[in-house]
Amino acid sequence: MEPKRLYRSVRDRMLLGVCGGIGEYFGVDATIIRVVWALFGCTGAGILAYFIAAVIMPQNPEN
Q1: Reduced to 3 states, what is the DSSP secondary structure of residue 59?
Q2: What does the alpha-carbon distance between residue 45 and residue 41 come to, in Å, rounded to a whole number?
Q3: pTM of the prediction?
Q4: How far, in Å, CA of 34 to CA of 25, rounded?
Q5: What pLDDT digit, counting tens, does each position of 19-29 carry?
């Protein structure tokens, strides 16, 4: 059995696919992840964390 991997989404993306990939990984709607990330983004650290995640997370090779 292959372990589950965290990828940026190709299908469910608004900007770079980070929230869509997190939603696919945890099996929740990406809209919920986006709302939480938007609230976190208001702190300033969330914006930096988003772009760091976009650089670190590879794009999903299956799509």
Answers
A1: strand
A2: 6
A3: 0.85
A4: 14
A5: 999 999 999 99
